[in-house]
Write a structure and sequence with these properties.
Elements (H helix, E strand, L loop, with lengths): L1 E3 L2 H5 L3 E9 L2 E9 L8 E2 L2 E4 L6 H11 L9 E7 L5 E4 L10 E6 L6 H18 L1 E2 L1 E7 L2 H12 L7 E8 L14 H7 L8 H7 L8 E7 L13 H4 L3 H7 L3 E6 L3 H4 L8 H12 L11
Parallel strand pairs: 1-7, 4-9, 5-8, 5-10, 6-8, 10-11, 11-12, 12-13
Antiparallel strand pairs: 2-3, 6-7
Helix pairs in contact: 3-4
Length: 297
């Protein structure tokens, strides 16, 4: 159930729509209360930022704040969604008529590593945007375990022509193989052939990668914590880039990027605050043809 907890909800008449999302054996029902008038005249291209396993919006928010709401960037922070443990999704905020590249934050009331739960939340967000605004395409940024949620969404919906097209997926220190190190492999070997040691969840990705639309642009980022350990302090690069070879084999446009910085912004939990990662993501989303683009002040 998707609900907006504002006084405005009690005043304005709303369009109530029942949405049933079937994810394997999981059936999730959302009640969507529509309180904003749809502006069909202006097309928007949202970017959805989903946080990591702690579920907290304030984990991903430093990234969103750094690359929006400033200068001439046509992007402003807009809606936030929090998936509740009772099956509802609480939405707050609004998209103004001049915000053509709105930033959408997605969190979870209770932290989770479940790609299925994260995917369900993403599906609810996409349906809400599609039904309330003129959205034909969008981007997704997944931090940490949130990257798994995006990956699951791409597997199930990136070829669904009834939903908005996914242009770009940016994986920020994504976790795809249960933080499994690969002591007998170099990173180059993992990039070429994938990991030798595979978690129980990794097989799902191998089996379903071909369901992802090969036109989706993929950007995979990892923090260079303590400079030479090939890790961000929590997730080894061998995990973050464990699905690189799958995307390559699938034919997706693919970029791998490792970024530097002080330990307090390259350690896993703090990488949304990393200026180099912020600059890369901001440029990728809003100024892809400007190599020297800097964060706005």
């Amino acid at each position: 159930m998707l609900k907006r907890l504002t006084k405005r909800e009690k005043i304005l008449s709303g369009l109530v729509v029942l949405l049933i999302v079937l994810l394997g054996t999981v059936s999730i029902v959302y009640l969507l209360r529509h309180t904003d008038a749809k502006n069909s005249a202006v097309a928007i291209e949202p970017t959805i930022f989903i946080t990591g396993s702690d579920g907290k919006l304030n984990t991903i928010d430093p990234l969103v704040q750094a690359i929006t709401n400033k200068g001439k960037i046509p992007a402003r922070k807009a809606l936030t969604f929090v998936a509740q443990t009772d099956g509802t999704v609480v939405v707050s905020g609004r998209i103004s008529k001049d915000n053509v590249r709105p930033a959408i934050e997605v969190g979870m009331e209770e932290g989770t590593n479940s790609g299925t739960k994260q995917e369900a939340a993403l599906k609810a967000v996409v349906l809400y945007l599609q039904q309330n605004y003129n959205v034909t395409s969008l981007n997704m940024v997944g931090f940490s375990a949130g990257g798994t949620g995006v990956l699951h969404y791409l597997i199930d919906y990136s070829n669904d022509t009834k939903l908005p097209k996914i242009n770009k997926f940016i994986s920020l220190d994504g976790q795809y193989n249960a933080s499994t190190a690969q002591p007998s492999q170099t990173l180059d070997e993992v990039l070429l052939n994938g990991p030798k040691i595979k978690s129980q969840y990794f097989a799902y990705q191998v089996q379903n990668i071909k369901k992802i639309n090969p036109a989706v642009q993929i950007y995979m980022l990892a923090g260079n914590y303590q400079n030479s350990n090939s890790t961000d302090g929590v997730v080894p690069w061998a995990d973050t880039f464990s699905i690189y070879y799958l995307f390559k084999a699938n034919g997706n446009p693919l970029v791998k990027y490792t970024y530097n910085g002080a330990d307090d912004v390259t350690w896993h939990g703090y990488v949304p605050k990393n200026p180099e990662a912020q600059r890369f993501i901001g440029r990728t989303l809003y100024a892809p043809n400007t190599p020297n683009w800097q964060l706005p002040k």
